[in-house]
Design brief:
Order of helices and strands: HH
Largest sheet: none
Radius of gyration: 15 Å
Helix content: over 70%
Strand content: under 5%
Oligomer: single chain
Number of helices: 2
Length: 54
């Protein structure tokens, strides 16, 4: 999932470089959402891993 966030971030940077503001904003928004979902899932996985170990 972090890979997709990075891909959308790169797409946003390239679109912004060429002046496509709407596409850049959309791709940046998707990248931001995917990044936060990744962070939440990573924290949840870490916490569940700590809980399961005796």
């Amino acid at each position: 999932m972090l890979h997709y966030a990075v891909v959308f971030f790169v797409i946003a940077l390239i679109a912004a470089l060429f002046g496509f503001g709407g596409i850049a904003a959309g791709a940046a928004g998707i990248a931001k959402i995917l990044f936060f979902v990744f962070v939440i899932m990573a924290i949840a996985t870490f916490l569940f891993g700590l809980i399961r170990k005796p």
